[in-house]
Amino acid sequence: MAATVIDGKTFAARVRGQVATHVAGLREQGLQPGLAVVLVGMDPASQVYVKNKHASTVEVGMASFEHRLPADTSEADLLALVAALNADPKVHGILVQLPLPSHLNSELLINAIDPAKDVDGFHISNVGLLGTGQKSMVPCTPLGCLMMLRDHHGSLAGMSAVVVGRSNIVGKPMAQLLLGDSCTVTVAHSRTRDLAAVCRGADILVAAVGRPEMITGNMVKPGATVIDVGINRVMRDGKMRLVGDVDYASAAAVAGAITPVPGGVGPMTIACLLANTVTACCRANGLAEPEGLTS
Ligand code: NAP
After folding, report:
1. Which residues approach ligand 1 with their CB closer than 6 A?
2. What would the DSSP string read from start to end of 124-142?
3. What's the Cα-to-Cα distance from 11 to each of 182, 223, 226, rounded to whole Å?
4. How far is residue 39's CA from residue 34's CA, in Å, rounded to a whole number?
C-alpha cells in the first residue's frame, strides 16, 4: 500500500493560522508579539531565509525587526545589538541567523541572547531545560517534526524512534523531544555500525544527515513513519532540484507515512518560529500560552 504523505505545507498553513488568531487576540489587549532577526553578511541562502521569515512574521500580524549587518561586523558590536534587543520590550523573540562569519563566535553570541527570547532554542539554558524535561524554548525544526508526528499518530508512547544525525540544532533536540513523548530512542551518526539494520528497527525514522537521498527503502521498516529533515540542492537533468536525505521513491514504497521534500519539514520550521515568538510574548506578559503550539 502506498505511504500516506504527511503534508507539511498544509499543516504549516494551519499552524500559521492558529498563530495569527493568537496574535489578533493579543493585539486586542494592546500587545503585539515582535521578532527580531539579525543577519550578518551576505550569505545567499541566509538572505532568502531572513526574507521569508520577515514576510511570514508580518503575515501573521507580528512586528518584524530586521537587522542586516556587514560581514566584518565586530563581536563587540554584535553583542551590543543583542543586549539592546534583550532590553527592548517590543522584541519577544531574537534570532541570530546562522552560520555567522568565521571571525564571530556563534556559541558566545547565541548564549548572549536572553533565554526567554531565544526563539531558536539554541541557548545553553534552553538546551538544559529541554534535556531535563522542563519548560523551554524548543528548536523550531525538531518541534515541527514532533507536531507532525503527534498529529499523525496521536500518542507516540512506546514507539521505537531512530534519529539519524546528532547535530545540536536537529538530531539531539529531536531525540530529546521523542524521549519526552516516551519513545524508545536511538541516535545514529557517521560512526554507527550497520546503519541499515538500526534504521530498520524504527517505527519512527527521522533523517537529519545532510546527505542527498542517503536513506533508502531497504533501510525502512514496513509501515514506519519517515520524517525527512534534509534539504539538499542537487543538479538533476540539467536543473537544480531540492531533495531530502531520504530516497523518496524507494522509502515511500515501504513506509506507512512519509514527509516529502520540498513541502514536508521545511514549511513547519518557520511556522514553529512564529509559534515560539507568540509563546515567548505570552510568557513575558504572564499570559496563558497558546494550546498545542508548544511542546
Ligand atoms: P549536520 O550538522 O551536518 O549533522 C549531520 C549529522 O549527520 C551528523 O551528526 C553526522 O554524524 C551525521 N551523518 C553524516 N553522514 C552520515 C552517514 N553516512 N551515516 C550516518 N550519519 C551521518 O547537519 P544538520 O544541521 O543537523 O542538518 C541535517 C539536514 O537537515 C541537512 O540536510 C540540513 O540542510 C537539513 N536541515 C533542514 C532544516 C529545515 O528547516 N527543514 C533545518 C535544519 C537543517 P557525525 O556527528 O558522526 O559527523
Report:
1. 141, 164-167, 169-171, 188-192, 195, 208-211, 229-232, 245, 265-266, 269
2. HHHHHHHHTT-S-PPPHHH
3. 23, 22, 16
4. 16
Can you give the pTM of this predicted structure? 0.97
Identify the residue whose C-alpha is closest to ligand 1 atom 42: 141
Q: According to the model, what pLDDT value does residue 295 have?
A: 54
Collect all residues with Cβ–Cβ distance below 8 Å to 129 and sequence separation of at least 6. 135, 136
Nearest to 264 by CA among 4, 10, 3: 10
| Cα separation, 86 vs 67, whole angstroms | 14
Residues 264-285: what's their mean pLDDT? Answer: 97
The helix (run of H) or strand (run of E) holding residue 78 is: helix 75-87
Statement: residue 180 has pLDDT above 60: yes
Candidate of 145, 189, 194 to mutate for ligand 1, largest count of ligand atoms within 8 Å of Cβ: 189
Euclidean distance between CA atoms 170 and 168, whole angstroms? 6
Distance 209 CA to ligand 1 centre (A): 3
Among 42, 81, 113, 117, smallest CA distance to 283 is for 117
Q: What do you get for the CA distance between the two ends of the chain, in Å?
A: 32
Digit-coded pLDDT (tens) for 231-253: 999 999 999 999 999 999 999 99
What is the rounded CA–CA span in Å between residue 197 and residue 225? Answer: 16
